[in-house]
Amino acid sequence: MLTIAMPKGRIFEEAVELLRRADYALPPEFTESRKLVIDVPEENMRFILAKPMDVVTYVEHGVADLGIAGKDVLMEEERDVYELLDLHISRCHLAVAGLPGAKMNEIAPRVATKYPNIASTYFREQGEQVEIIRLNGSIELAPLIGLADRIVDIVSTGRTLRENGLVELERIAEVTSRLIVNPASYRLNGGDIERLVDRLAAVIPQP
Ligand SMILES: Nc1ncnc2c1ncn2[C@@H]1O[C@H](COP(=O)(O)OP(=O)(O)OP(=O)(O)O)[C@@H](O)[C@H]1O
Ligand SMILES: O=P(O)(O)OC[C@H]1O[C@H](OP(=O)(O)OP(=O)(O)O)[C@H](O)[C@@H]1O
């Protein structure tokens, strides 16, 4: 049996839709219950529903064979998992944003973000030394109330930036969700996993 860690939240619906398009008979309880472990015996599969940032942890520890995770999460922390497939779902990008015309503080430039590693690597590569302030959400607040000069965050429609009077300044990376696998499980269950990859690859939305 294959165990797949699914990210709750905004990726979930698109991931379920993709699996159903690939002809996996996922029961209605998938989208209608609050169960966190859902067995689908007809497909010889078990799904566990986790927070997006935790999916990689379940896969890395081998309690899930496979998982679906945003490229942002995979970029943020070096983890011992293989990326098998770009699912082309939950498309967005990582960007630097700030108040229009606002310069970086020259003495103590500060950047607020949920992605401290991505942000510090990016600014280091730009040759800029900044203090990273880690937040867990509502990142766009930081420049509005003077906590930071810049933010590094996900942009999708751009609506959150717009409605808060912020502008995108630099694009860091494109983000889509990926199918990831535990390396040991891949060696052990290669055949079953390749079949799943083929079925998904056949129905992935075109970029
Ligand atoms: N605005 C967006 N549009 C499309 N995809 C997004 C958007 N924001 C985040 N994502 C993708 O969805 C994932 C996060 O989903 P979601 O927003 O449901 O969780 P979260 O509440 O931010 O995560 P956590 O609970 O771990 O903090 C991200 O890793 C990213 O790949
Ligand atoms: O460009 P947009 O379409 O407006 O989407 C971008 C917003 O979506 C995410 O936030 P989320 O809704 O996950 O809330 P959060 O602030 O709690 O992270 C992201 O952090 C941005 O704030």
From TrEMBL:
Signal peptide: none
Entry comment, domain topic: Lacks the C-terminal regulatory region which is replaced by HisZ.
Name of the gene encoding the protein in the UniProt record: hisG
Record protein name field: ATP phosphoribosyltransferase
Assembly behavior: Heteromultimer composed of HisG and HisZ subunits.
GO biological process: L-histidine biosynthetic process
Keyword Cytoplasm attributed: yes
NCBIfam families: hisG
Protein function: Catalyzes the condensation of ATP and 5-phosphoribose 1-diphosphate to form N'-(5'-phosphoribosyl)-ATP (PR-ATP). Has a crucial role in the pathway because the rate of histidine biosynthesis seems to be controlled primarily by regulation of HisG enzymatic activity.
Catalytic activity: 1-(5-phospho-beta-D-ribosyl)-ATP + diphosphate = 5-phospho-alpha-D-ribose 1-diphosphate + ATP
Keywords: Amino-acid biosynthesis, ATP-binding, Cytoplasm, Glycosyltransferase, Histidine biosynthesis, Nucleotide-binding, Transferase
CDD domains assigned: PBP2_HisGs
EC number: 2.4.2.17
Taxonomic placement: Bacteria, Bacillati, Bacillota, Bacilli, Bacillales
Gene Ontology CC: one annotated term: cytoplasm
Domain ATP phosphoribosyltransferase catalytic: 51-201
Pathway(s): Amino-acid biosynthesis; L-histidine biosynthesis; L-histidine from 5-phospho-alpha-D-ribose 1-diphosphate: step 1/9
InterPro entries: ATP_PRibTrfase_cat, ATP_PRibTrfase_CS, ATP_PRibTrfase_HisG, ATP_PRibTrfase_HisG_short
Pfam families named among the record's database cross-references: HisG (PF01634)
Superkingdom, taxonomy of origin: Bacteria
UniProt similarity note: Belongs to the ATP phosphoribosyltransferase family. Short subfamily.
Major subcellular location class: cytoplasm
Record-level Gene Ontology MF annotations: ATP binding; ATP phosphoribosyltransferase activity
Localization in the cell: Cytoplasm
